[in-house]
Each structure stands twice: as structure tokens, then as C-alpha cells.
Amino acid sequence: MTDGSLRIVSLIPSGTEILAVLGLTDAIVGRSHECDYPKEILDRPVCTQARLNTNAASNEIHDRVNNLLQNALSIYEIKTDILEQLQPTHIVTQDQCDVCAVSLSEVEKAIASLTQTSPQIISLKPNVLDDVWRDIERVASVFKVDAVRVLENLEARVKIVAQKTQGLSQTEKLPSVACIEWIDPLMIAANWIPELVTLAGGKPLFHTTQGQPSFQLSWEQLVHSNPDVIVFMPCGFDLNRTRQEAQLLTKQPQWQDLHASKTGRVYITDGNSYFNRPGPRLVDSLETLAEILHPEIFQYGYKGKTWEPL
Fold this sequence. Notes:
Layout: E1 8-10, H1 13-21, E2 28-31, E3 48-50, H2 58-70, E4 76-78, H3 80-86, E5 90-94, H4 104-112, E6 120-124, H5 129-142, H6 148-166, H7 168-171, E7 176-182, E8 187-188, H8 193-199, E9 203-204, E10 215-216, H9 219-225, E11 229-232, H10 239-250, H11 259-262, E12 266-269, H12 282-293, E13 307-309
Helix pairs in contact: 6-12
């Protein structure tokens, strides 16, 4: 149970999941339009909305996002009237990516306009797995709850995967893996993703350092790299939407010649709920990758839920 005087608004899905795993679900009084897990928070008032049509095609979304950012506009709006009504004591947000969620500056602007309350901002900025653990610790420390058991459990699951894949490079060639975060234009997933691929027993393509932001890639570069495995994890898309969008690439002239395509090692994932969300379920994402890359070692039962072969 939580202190009745706590009134938390979470404006980032990963933040909502961190609060939930720490036992603070009851204290969440408002959420962003993208916060959809755990299911208990779906009845909380929605405090944000997107300034674009997220059902549009990949390239349309990309152009609209660029257009908004070039005009120094946030991609998301905060409904300050709802914030005013909710009178939060704390707001959880992020300053990691202006495309993923409402920006920190927008939150600060919204708070400055509130008359009834002056909530404390907790801003998350994860780039690698360790940052996610630190964010969980920080949120726990602000609300004076214990994160030890939660972190021990998450870290133990990571360790199990890492230990099982550790000896693979000595005994066999690790598969080269291209993780696709956006399809039109083509973008490679970054931040914590190369780290997850490495832990899961793969060789992440196009990355020399972990924790860097995602970047665009030409079709020719992908063809030249000829990955053993291709994993689609577009930001904000679930399995069904990812399956539709992936067809854009499979229609490319050299698609059939790619090693991953020939060997049937092309996969779609629910990037929205898992890979793009730097909270507790990144461990589910790691286990998903391990199951995809080494089915002979890992069988978690995620197939059909978090991933499917394309």
C-alpha cells in the first residue's frame, strides 16, 4: 500500500512500469496516452496527447516528427487542465528522447502554469541497462520504498542469460544481428539494444559503443553487412503493426539474397511494449532475444507473445 498523500502522474510508459514494480500503482493518479501497462492504470486520467497521427505510414510519421522538431515544437502536448485537477505531488518524465515521450522542457513549462500545486519532477535518462537499474533505485529512494528485491530479481535473470551464452564465442561463431528500430527511413536500434544483443549471444552490427542514440542506415549498408539475423523492433509498434511495416523492406530488390532472409532468420517483435521501453520489461526483451538467437538453449515461451518469425 502507498501513502495516501502521494499523487503521482507518470508521463512515460517505462516510468509507469517502474512505479508499478515498486508497488506504487495505487499512488498513480494520471498517465500519458502511451502508458498502457500494467492494466490497472488504464482507468487513470490521460494527461498527454500526440500532435501527429500515429496510424500514418512510417515515412509520414518520420516527416511529421522532423517537421515539429525543426519548428521547435514538442511532438506531444500536456493537458494542463487535467494536471491542474489532479494536483500531483510528483511527475515522472524523461529527458532521453524527444520523439519517445513528452520532453522535460514541456513538463517544466506545464508545471510553471499550475496554480494549485508545485510537483517534484523525477526525470529518467537511461542509455544502457545500468542506467535503468539506477532509475529504479532513484524512484525507490524518492518514494522511500525498497528496490533491493526487485533489482536482485531483474539482475539475476540477466545473469542467467549471460552465463548460458558466455562460452558460445569459444565454441561457435556468434550470429551477426541487425535490430531495426524504424523502417522508412531505415534506422538501427541503439542505446541499450547492442548490450542486450551481446548478452543474448549475438554480435550487434553497426555499433562500436553502447548507449549511443539510434541512427539512419542506407538499404545498401544493410545489404553489404548481410546479417545472419534481422530483428524488427520499430518504436511504438506492436506485433501486428510491425508485420505490416516490415513488408516495405521485404519488397526491396535484394531482400531474397540476404543471408537472414534465405535462412528464415528474420523476426518481428513487439518493440512498443518491450525493446523501446527502458523499464523492468527490458529483461523480458533480453530473454526474447536469447530465445530468438539460441532456441537450442532458451525456451521461455515468449514466441507469439513478444516475437514471431516473419
